[in-house]
Amino acid sequence: xxxxxxxxxxxxxxxxxxxxxxxxxxxxxxxxxxxxxxxxxxxxxxxxxxxxxxxxxxxxxxxxxxxxxxxxxxxxxxxxxxxxxxx
Length: 87
What we know:
The protein is 98% helix and 0% strand. By secondary structure, it is mainly alpha-helical.
């Protein structure tokens, strides 16, 4: 009977060690998943900020093109007026 009790103790001991090892592994995995989630969240914020910056740049570029059109028209009118004066 002592042999059976010893075997049961050994089995229970091994199960306890396996449970502790599994718990530690799950805890490490959980920590890594949390780190990845944090990184993904930060990247999401960065993408949002980049999107805003691109939008602002696009609007600024549109305004610059509009002003360049106006400047080009003014220069064409000035060139035309100078040409008319020289004739």
